[in-house]
Amino acid sequence: MLDTVFIGLSIGSILLLVALGLSIVYGSMGVINMAHGELVMMGAYTTVIAQTYLGFNLFAAIPLAFIVCAGLGLLIERLVIRRLYNRLFDTLLATWGVAILLQQAIRLEFGLSFFGIHIEGLGPGLQSVTLPEIMTESFTVGEFVIQPYRTFIILVSALLAVLTWFLMYRTRIGQQVRAIMRNPDMAAACGIDVKKVNALTFAYGAGLAGVAGVMMSGFKTVMPDMGSSLVVDGFLVVVVGGVGSLVGSIVASGILGQLNGVVAFFSNDIIARAVVFAAVIAIIIWRPRGLFNYKGR
């Protein structure tokens, strides 16, 4: 059971990394980013390419994936999202289109396959990442088996959650983001550059998705459609925790991760998935705005 709880913590940590970016972006910009899962996928492929061509290990790929995905997120915000503010369903359809484009770009190796140029690590095939040796050797404490890589995932997620909290509650840019979450028009009237803050917020959320992709590449096969289900899982965490609530995202990811791990231990992954959805529905009925949310007047 301790092993199961530990696995549940690692699952919850991945969900947290995915949900943090979604929660901040939706809370401040009102954008349902359907391409968020594909940004996770891009982070995983960045790890594959960095390992293949640059000789980077998984540790070195983390900052690289953050930079690549943050830059891609900034580009998406500038070219697509910025033109669709306050149009919720339009942004949903537009980002869904971006998600399809990113998937096909990987499958077609960014169009280079038409010219007979093959990039190893891209294409429709399955890819894998080699873990550093220190991450593959389990050790025991008493009767408890500690898996180094899952421990690493939990530590990275905790560190990024603390960093996100610090940025949101102890910096000027975080104060501006929280002001925009409450009332974007009043924030703009007070002199906050809403477009600039939104662009940086979207880029940061995309960077977190890239780090989640690096973490997932260590224990899951890397493929073009690996992010499709993750965006659903991320929004489940956001809805349960409360839109824009950092504490809510942390608590919700822990609850859903543990629930998935424990139920899967006693039954199977399919039943665990069904139980998670049933729990989310029950929580939404009980708390329509999530477990934690801003109190409005």
UniProtKB/TrEMBL annotation:
One of its GO terms (molecular function) is transmembrane transporter activity. One of its GO terms (cellular component) is plasma membrane. InterPro entries: ABC_transp_permease (IPR001851), ABC_UrtB_bac (IPR017779), BCAA_transport_permease (IPR052157). Belongs to the binding-protein-dependent transport system permease family. LivHM subfamily. The chain crosses the membrane at residues 6-27, 62-81, 88-106, 149-168, 230-256, 262-286. This is Amino acid/amide ABC transporter membrane protein 1, HAAT family. GO terms for biological process: amino acid transport. Its main location: membrane. It comes from Methylophaga sulfidovorans.
